[in-house]
Specification:
Distance between the termini: 76 Å
Largest sheet: 9 strands, mixed
Strand content: 15-25%
Low-confidence stretches: 1-15
Shape: globular
């Protein structure tokens, strides 16, 4: 066979590639910085730089452009990055399967979450899981649907927990995902536990419009619910407006100011029980929405992910029962 045929070149590249430089490359791609990647990997900067240069030599291409503010991936770097994500995901799946075969309750599950689950459902499910599998590592990443669902489809996450997407949304239809509802939830209006309105609770939404509000950003599904709520009441959106999906930021804004906001009912009840927030005695906002989990439809679940889902089902049943009281 001619030594320069595509098959032999492909075979030579595979024989030269090693896992460690690929893992270093993936971290540099995520950090966009040699220095930060070195810190996270507990390596020296020269060691990280050497790994990247060796990989570039093996692939005969430039993966990053160096600059004063860090590194920027080239088109080849971005292409390799997508493939490396899949390789790392497969290795993680393999590790979990080997651990399960050995009979140990361990492994690693990576969960994406949204505000609708991060304050109640997911913490309760994690506590249940860790009670019987303390060695199982749980990693949680928070973000909006347009970040979480592509990451799930790429294998970077094992499941996403939170408000389920609209079945007809373009992002939902193009990704090979399966969505499983666990219970229904609604939005409600919340304020800090010492808000002046609590002394004389309002009876009409119109009484609240002049206060500062925190609403989801325009690209969030919850924002459409909020806009429809004000529209149905015959009111424009408040003039004094903040836009945020960060649960921690929103809770602190509500506690430290006279802002009003929207929050999933079960999450709001948790903060109200802790005397941080209060739920205003007005109609709930919008129709009920399904909260549940999403997984890849084209990939079997890891043993760790299956255990997480079992815990989610138990936690959801307990929350739903408590919500009916």
């Amino acid at each position: 066979m001619d030594p320069l045929t595509p098959f032999s070149v492909h075979d030579m590249v595979l024989n030269r590639l090693k896992l460690r430089p690929l893992l270093v490359f993936d971290r540099v791609l995520r950090c966009q910085s040699i220095a930060r990647a070195a810190r996270e990997l507990h390596l020296t900067q020269p060691a990280v730089t050497k790994a990247i240069r060796e990989l570039e030599q093996q692939l005969d291409t430039v993966l990053f452009l160096r600059g004063n503010r860090g590194v920027t991936p080239t088109e080849y770097g971005l292409l390799l990055g997508e493939r490396v994500k899949a390789v790392i995901a497969e290795l993680r799946y393999l590790t979990d399967e080997i651990n399960a075969f050995k009979g140990g309750i361990c492994g690693h599950v990576i969960i994406g979450t949204q505000i609708s689950a991060s304050a109640s459902l997911l913490p309760q499910a994690i506590l249940r899981l860790k009670a019987h599998a303390p060695k199982l590592l749980v990693t949680v990443r928070e973000g909006p649907q347009d970040y979480l669902f592509p990451a799930l489809a790429a294998g970077e996450l094992d499941l996403v927990v939170g408000r389920l997407p609209d079945p007809e949304a373009p992002l939902t239809r193009k990704l090979p995902l399966r969505h499983q509802p666990l219970y229904l939830n609604r939005l409600c209006i919340v304020a800090g536990g010492h808000h002046p309105l609590l002394a004389a609770p309002p009876s009409l939404l119109a009484e609240l419009r002049d206060w500062p509000w925190i609403l989801p950003p325009p690209d969030s599904p919850a924002r459409l619910v909020a806009e429809q709520f004000f529209h149905d009441a015959g009111l424009p959106l408040p003039d004094n407006l903040l836009e945020s999906l960060s649960l921690l930021t929103n809770v602190n804004l509500l506690v430290d100011s006279d802002c009003l906001g929207l929050m999933p009912r079960l999450a709001a009840r948790r903060f109200a029980a802790a005397k941080l927030l209060a739920v205003l005695p007005l109609d709930e906002v919008g129709p009920p929405t399904a909260v549940g989990y999403s997984v890849r439809a084209d990939k079997p679940l890891t043993p760790a992910a299956r255990q997480m889902i079992d815990s989610l089902k138990l936690a959801a049943a307990a929350l739903d029962a408590a919500d009916q009281v």
